[in-house]
Amino acid sequence: MITKELVTSESPTSEKAIVSSELATKFASEKETPYTRWVKNEGLEIISGLHVPDLHTVELKPWPRRGGRGVFINHDASRTSNDCYVCEISPGKELAPQRQLFEEMIYVLDGRGSTAVWNDAGQRVQFEWKAGAIFAIPLNASHQHFNGSGKEPVRYVAVTNAPPVMNLYGDVDFVFGTKYDFRERFGGEPNYFANKGEQRGLLLDTNFVADAVNLPLVAANERGAGGGHIRFSMAKGSMIVPPNMWYHQHFNTGTTPARYLAFKHEVVAVRNSQGVPKAWISKRVGGDQIDYADEAPIVRTLFAEALSRHGLKPRMDDAYRAELADLPPKAA
Prior knowledge:
alpha+beta; single chain; Jelly Rolls
């Protein structure tokens, strides 16, 4: 599987919006935040680029407090809302127990193991997982991850909303040491992490997905057929962070289906009055999605060139024609 991503912007980037040293000095004390200071005190680095080629092999540093190895991945455009980190557990080892007042969702990259989750009332559940699993840690529940293999390391990537929580309270002990059970979020239910859930439209309401790689998907042709600019090559295990409000588009330039995970913590999506995300609605009627008919010619040229390098040709003509039947007229 080989894929490409195209990212475009109609506005200047933060890297280009450079001001004088005199003005920058006035804001120097605001560059660091309680969140970035906390990461530094953890002894870890923050990868701030748009593209991580391979999460399976990205370099990690010892993480003494957790008992594993890790690195944070956090582009400056999202540093106030989301963060991401990769963590590795050595063979036969475990991470230190932890609880926190921020949300966390985990995707297992490599290995197999188990996680124990418990509350102050003494209710405890434990479940097993392997590569490809996704699960969420209940808010402020104590938890601990274990490597189930004595030979191979475990590596996972997690997304959290730690930045706004850390920046709001500015108190590490409060964020990680508050004793309070959110009983409506977790009450020690034995099947809390069962591999099941309720499918409601495009939403699968669940706490655990055993195999996200092979999870059956719901057809969503509204987002495209089969499912200055910067280009990235994407392969298994890579991560892309489109800057906030930039247009981006995914392409499959291989011979097998490509699957990606939009891995983020989202509190509020920008939606219309019907509850439909604007990213699913044509720009012609006030949404944020560019129709095929309106995409820049260079996009199709770049796609064709990428395919040709693998001896392939575009197979989009049917999708282009099908779109025309329901395409809204352009605004006057």
